[in-house]
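Could someone model beta-D-glucopyranose with this protein?
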Amino acid sequence: MPEFRFPADFLWGCATSAYQIEGHPLADGAGPSIWHRFAHTPGLTDQGDHGDIACDHYSRVADDVRLMRDLGLSSYRFSIAWGRVLPQGTGRVNAKGLDFYRRLVDALLETGIKPMVTLYHWDLPEALDDRGGWLNTDSADWFAEYAATCFDALDDRVTLWVTLNEPWVIADGGYLHGTLAPGHRNPFEAARVARNLMRAHGAAVQAYRARGRHHIGLVVNLEPKVPASESEIDRAATARADAYMNRQYLDPAMLGQCPPEMPEIFGTAWQDWPAEDLALARQPLDFLGINYYTRGVTRHDDHVWPLRAGNVRQPSSTYTETGWEVHAPSFTDVLAWVRERYGDIPLYVTENGAAFEDPPRAGPDGVHDPLRAAYLHSHLRALHAAITAGVDVRGYYLWSLLDNLEWSLGFAKRFGIVHVDYATLERTLKDSARFYARVIASHGEALGKDLR
Ligand code: BGC
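Reply:
Sure, complex below.
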């Protein structure tokens, strides 16, 4: 077997999300989302950037699927905008909104690309936020209703479903630090939202078991935490950071329990979950999706609220434009850790990638992005190492297909392997895209060579 060959049926994909790429968030009867409201509130996003046009994927979907075909992708992970399907979040279904996703799924299947559909990538309908959003215990029923509508419309053609994308980010960015929609800063809310998100996840999986015929899972973002020193306080800080980011959602989903560090982190804001909520959160899953970007070398830090743990910058490492350390060995480690802690469940790497500085306009010979290509090269080798060590990883989705709206950081942070000129919306392959296409075409063997 050549050194870096991947299994023949391994899925090679790219990932995106609705609000980040589609544009036209109110088209064809869609209801606005919390991201539409947040991004249109002055001062909350870099340069006031918003998703009104974004990559104009809503109009250019056929071209974008052709782009995926040219790269040789065998799968594509995208999210459905809840408010396109149910403008008020519950109740009346907007057929035109569903039609957009029907057309996308059909175009993918005609091209031989397997869709992976995320039901929730952060764009809660504004109408539901006005009823308390994820703070409202009814949110589990709202989400199950929306999920069932999507299953009924698409499960005949979609075989891979994801309930939530990164519940940690939803609660931490949206309700604890306020950097993401809906922009709240309240530990009592963050703790409550964490529980309601996992109840919603469980309710959607139950809805799937009643009507779906394929596979459903949960996507979490994981960041291995390693202590900056052997001191007692740094090791305790590392355990808190690990509980907060890596175990807070997987422990309830997979083990039916919350990490013991949670009360220490949240203090009086933490309430133990009732047994019925733990039971609802723990549904049999067909797979887990793991998003991996970086690790955290962790030390005790009283200034970081409420975790009292912060990252220590590593002088010899490369950092991305979002300030994340590039550390490929931790990618292998985190996949092995998931198997060790949660058992041998099929895994997909549902996001992995990097923001590096690229020019706003493509040059005559394309876009050279050596740092992103190097990131991909090292991380795909690290992924291969995990598979060789026996971790059951079935596919890899690079974040992201296109440069897109990096939430409150706006369009300035570019994660795409395809460059988007935001003045003309023209797409240009970066060198990283060409490299990824070679890896796919060779089933990984191209990883054996140094980057050219
Ligand atoms: C999210 C994406 C985001 C990416 C890079 C993940 O947290 O799922 O929406 O763009 O990371 O920050």
